[in-house]
Known about the structure:
Elements: E1 2-4, H1 5-8, H2 19-28, E2 32-38, E3 44-57, E4 60-69, E5 76-80, E6 90-100, E7 104-105, E8 109-111, E9 114-116, E10 119-121, H3 154-157, E11 163-168, H4 179-190, H5 202-205, E12 214-217, E13 225-232, H6 241-249, H7 257-269, E14 273-277, E15 285-290, E16 296-298, E17 304-306, E18 312-315, E19 320-323, E20 327-328, E21 341-347, H8 350-360, H9 365-372, H10 379-394, E22 397-398, E23 403-406, E24 413-417, H11 419-426, H12 432-442, E25 445-448, E26 453-457, H13 467-478, H14 499-513, E27 517-518, E28 524-525, E29 553-554, H15 559-570, E30 577-587, E31 596-606, E32 608-610, E33 619-620, H16 623-637, E34 642-647, E35 654-666, E36 669-679, H17 681-686, E37 692-698, H18 699-703, E38 721-730, H19 735-745, E39 750-759, E40 768-777, H20 786-804, E41 807-808
Parallel strand pairs: 12-15, 27-30
Antiparallel strand pairs: 1-11, 2-11, 3-4, 3-6, 4-5, 6-7, 6-10, 8-9, 13-21, 13-22, 13-23, 14-21, 15-18, 16-17, 18-19, 19-20, 24-26, 25-26, 28-29, 30-31, 31-37, 32-33, 34-35, 35-36, 36-37, 38-40, 38-41, 39-40
Helix pairs in contact: 4-12, 6-7, 7-10, 8-9, 11-13, 12-13, 14-16, 19-20
Amino acid sequence: MKISKTWLNEYVPVADIPASEFAERLSRTGIEVDGVENIEAGLKKIVVGHVLSMEKHPDADKLNICQIDVGEEEPYQIVCGAPNIAPNQKVIVAMPGSRIKDNVKIKKSKLRGVKSNGMVCSLEELGFSEAVIPKAYADGIYVLPADAQPGDSVIDYLNLDDDIVELDITPNRADALSMMGTAYEVGAVYNKDVTVSHIDTSDYEQASLGDDLKLSVTDTDKVPAYYAYLVKNVTVKPSPLWLQVRLMKAGIRPMNNIVDITNYVLMEYGQPLHAFDYDKLPSHTIETRMANNGEELVTLDEETRELSEEDIVITDGERPIALAGVMGGLDTEITDNTTNVLIEAATFNPVNIRKTARKFGLRSESSLRNERGINIDTIAEAGARAAELMHKLADGEVVLGRESVEALDFTPQTVTSSLSFINHRLGTDLDYDTLTQIFNQLGFSLTGSAEHFTVTIPNRRWDISIPADLVEEVARIYGYDKLPATLPESKSVNAGLTPWQAYKRQTNQLMRTLGFDQAIAYSLTSEKKQPIMQIHESHPVALDFPMSDDRRLLRTNLTTALLDVVQYNTARQTKNVQVYEIGQVFSWEDDNELPSANTHLAAVWTGMKSEKTWNTAKEAISFFDMKGVVETILTKANREAEITYEAVSDYADMHPGQTAKVLATTNDETIELGYVGKLHPDTAKNYDLKNTFVFEMSLEAIFNLPEKQVVQMPLPKHPGSSRDIALLVSDEVTHETITQVIRSASDGPLVAIELFDIYRGENIESGKKSMAYSLAYLNPETTLTDEEISSDVDKITTALQTELNAEIR
Length: 809
């Protein structure tokens, strides 16, 4: 928020405080100052000019030769290219020898052979940002009011000798997002009296708007207070110069007197307002409700917004006319033809406002305050203040009355504490009189004694609710630099690792043992890369103020960044790369207020498994090599769950014939841990990779599986036995399916199933494959007989024939 010291001085005397000292003092008491700007600094010899006459330049169609009265005996001839310059205007003139923005010196010159003694300036050339200059003058010079006197200093006329202090307000101190709130803060810091003139709203309270307006609030939890004021027969025109300049210094572009008044009161009180064109409400009805899914509203920026049931809307009884607390609707906007204005002063549920503003990307000065909270004591007063300003500045007729719905508790918050509680936490030795003085500076009332006192908090400081908040306030005003520097006493205790920390450390070590190098990639990614390797639909988390477009979103997977790492290395002739990362991924889930974070493990393996040497042949990585890594991780996790692999072919960036999702079944519940497989040829080509395999799993999901109890057993005293079976099955039948059928059919002491041969080719029917298994049996209590094993093998072969149409060979 940008604070004008000149404006602030109307509430609390700060004119004699140097800007640098003022900024440093505020920063030390908890409100950080981002910077101080003075537009006047560097400006010199800039005066009001009166355009007496104008003629076209003989050699340039876009240039005009102007004779301008600058308060001297003779007018100055100045060549100007502004498209909006005209005779009899009062303009801003930089005299020869003057300096404008960025310390640029203006000299006498010739433009296409014609002498020019100075320059007619725009507001941007004085130092105002293009974003705050009124649209009527955005592409040209600024025209001053008719009462401006030629030769007078523009610096004085526009009050440019003013320190603009930019405050970085933390979310808990939204009370300082207004001139009045900042005045109370500065008054407390400097122990100065604050003068605030409040509007008497009794005349409005005692009457209603009658037939002029019907007001309905469907849910006071969503809209705790709504006040409506009516001003008739207004004249929409540009705001007076003083109002425009104050808004521009605050970083707000002037529009017209009606809209500017709502913005002015916003900066003054911190209370968002909205002005409706009353005549565009044919039903003369205002109703607040939750939007219906799929409902549409064209907002003031001419964008069509599709609404949902989490959006609070203002309606005319039927259709939405504004997004509550965020942006008004185009159908009821104030235009040059507006004659009657309905003023809204309200407060809305901050959670809904935040979700709506974030969803539509409509963060504004109003939504910011509605999200963080407002002073409930001045909601109605701010509406009345806007109505009175419309009477003064727009010649409006204020209807003395209002419609309102309120469900607010205006009882001030009270917090109890003791002097010893505060001194103990600050390490100070303050006395009760000092404490009383500090709370008086803050405008808080104090009753009780040093042993037990109660502080009554005004509603303008809604951030204070517990004793610890009082400690912070005392520390701020007393001075952080005065607090004794002592270290807390604590004994060093080796608490060890939590089970989760130990598991992550074990997994890290295991991955390095398996030959992988650890990578730590950025947690932020771009909108272009976010969909890559996004196996399941996820709603990414966007930053409000990203450093760059390449780092706008929080990542939703780890693999994408690892592919960048692998691409970087392979491009530099490192052909065999094994990298992994353990890190968090983020996404929005359901209606959670905050995004969810989940720790994943991902790895990428590209190149050759082994290179050719004098006694070994080179061997490329296969799906089963990467699957073996996954199996090792899951085995070492020691979890009581059945792990299965299910072939999938619809993962966009994965090979449709060499990809499987990893499933864990425990207590009759199956959860998906992640996936493993080969990179899709198109995706691999995009990264200039060839034979590349990846996996990504939720490490938290693995850790949360029930832990397997390891029981030491004596070595068996009786020998085991084994049987081999070979079967002919269709190519579509997977090894996983066969092993499941074998386990389900066996009721003997079968302890292991091992696939030792797969054959396709000569003497095997096309579309089929021969698979050979070794079945291991062991009964630790007794010696197995051939009859027991043969009986169990017969059951298995029968099940394979029946369920899989297998041919036993």
